[in-house]
Design goal:
With 268 residues, this protein is α/β, with parallel strands linked by helices. 24% of the residues lie in helices and 22% in strands. The protein has a three-stranded mixed beta sheet, covered by helices on one side. It starts with 7 loop residues before the first strand and ends with a strand. The model has no long low-confidence stretch (mean pLDDT 97). Its EC number is 3.5.3.18. One of its GO terms (molecular function) is dimethylargininase activity. Belongs to the DDAH family.
Length: 268
Amino acid sequence: MREATKRHYLMCPPAHFEVSYAINPWMRPDKPVDAELAMAQWERLRELYLELGHEVDLIDPVEGLPDMVFAANGATVVDGKVLVARFRHEERAAEADAYRSWFAERGYAEVHVPEYVNEGEGDFAPAGRRILAGTGFRSDAAAHEGLKAFFGLHVVVLTLVDPRFYHLDTALCVLDDETVMYYPAAFSVESLAVLRALYPEAVIASREDAEAFGLNAVSDGLNVVLPETATGLISELRERGFVPHAVDTSELLKAGGSVKCCTLEIRR
Ligand code: ARG
């Protein structure tokens, strides 16, 4: 029996969302983005979390930071400890301080800004008492020692090899403490062997579903929110006893992000 547990999320409304630079292969500054539609799609996602019984906090969007809607990149929070992001690209650098202040102002005791580049939950996926840590494009491999020391959790390093799947959360999703879904071709041969050994029962995504950002999903242990175009994953999840909730994130996809990117989980 699968069971949902109540979650606490932090989201950022896409008030200043646009694609004005390209820092991943999905971003095309020459292609228009429908800002109103982006807001409506984001609103729907927030409402869905509330309908599922979760708590959603908001952080104020900052003008001039069009990618700030991708809250997952702002920090990693486990056991109430906050590891703040340090962005790879100058275009997003100032987001880190907005997230640092948000947590500091709300009395989180340990809010740490590390030296190494890390893009929060974009690359770090807590899974029970372990953290799956992606590297290859954004977060430094050097981050992993610090990650282990800060949280006191076991860290499993996973190397990404396809630039379209530049963050771990575009290639893998934690469904519950024991179950993940992932796209094999996004990982190095060594990392794939690690994943196969750790999760022999994993849900495997097809290329089509991975390209539809189907792995950029959010699970509460039962309900899995994911892009509606990931049809293969939607039926596979249902067969495995999960309850998929499909949403349209077409505008956010133009920046190379979807459901998970918009959602930072606060774990107490
Ligand atoms: N345009 C953003 C970037 O390239 C998208 C971030 C998506 N976030 C994520 N968690 N994968 O940084």
